[in-house]
Design a protein that fits this description.
Layout (H helix, E strand, L loop, with lengths): L1 E4 L68 H17 L6 E4 L19
Length: 119
């Protein structure tokens, strides 16, 4: 009997909170006091009701001119690289492995001796 083992598909997308838009945690565990807007970075409103909608977006993570959910954000890329480094550090192989298990003859007394019965 043999099985072909392939490496797991690793997700290197950083987890992002949709309350404060920081990386490394999710909204369920967020300690921020109020909702942050992903477009302007200000508190107490969301993207869909942003009163700064006529202005360029301001990322709350890096202060760049993009929304906080952008994969172009340097902070996003930094966290993505950390995850990729960890994956590479703890992965045993990046290539598929073809290992075979030893075959057994299920009817063989050598591989499976007859058990003695007790009276």
């Amino acid at each position: 009997m043999h099985f072909i083992a392939e490496p797991a598909n690793h997700n290197n997308k950083p987890s992002q909170c949709y309350k404060c838009f920081k990386y490394g945690h999710i909204a369920k565990y967020c300690k921020a006091d109020s909702q942050i807007c992903s477009k302007c970075g200000e508190a107490n409103h969301t993207y869909d009701v942003c009163h700064n909608s006529s202005q360029h977006p301001i990322c709350c993570n890096c202060k760049g001119q993009h929304v906080a959910t952008s994969p172009d954000c340097p902070k996003y890329k930094e966290h993505q690289q950390k995850i990729q480094k960890t994956i590479e550090q703890y992965s045993s192989s990046t290539k598929p492995t073809n290992q075979t298990q030893p075959g057994y003859n299920w009817n063989s007394n050598e591989d499976f001796p007859i058990l003695k019965t007790t009276d």
